[in-house]
Write a structure and sequence with these properties.
The protein is mainly alpha-helical. It contains 6 helices and no strands. The longest helix is centred in the N-terminal third of the chain and has 22 residues.
């Protein structure tokens, strides 16, 4: 198979509602199982949780809305979570904050 046809196949799979639901369920399962992985030596639980959160946010509009509500209510922990996931929006916001003038009241 050519590379272009594989790309189209992957895109078609990602737009399928059943595949997206399966990825969301996998992400949710990883987030639920992450405390068990945290019992093992090393930072495994954090990594498993971040992967699960990324899958859930990528494949569910409901999870995105809940995450935005969480970010508005608790900006500091949400900022750490975004930094940990290396989200592009976090990089843009931090770059914008560094270049904007500091307001003093």
């Amino acid at each position: 198979m050519r590379a272009m046809s594989i790309r189209h196949l992957l895109h078609a799979m990602r737009t399928s509602s059943s595949v997206r639901l399966g990825l969301f369920v996998l992400g949710s399962t990883l987030m639920i199982v992450s405390p068990l992985a945290g019992l093992l030596p090393g930072p495994g639980g954090i990594i498993v949780f971040a992967i699960g959160l990324g899958l859930a946010l990528k494949n569910s509009a409901w999870a995105k809305r809940r995450y935005v509500a969480f970010k508005r209510r608790f900006p500091k922990p949400a900022g750490l979570a975004e930094w940990g996931m290396r989200r592009p929006s976090t990089k843009r916001r931090s770059a914008r904050a560094k270049t904007s003038p500091v307001k003093t009241d």
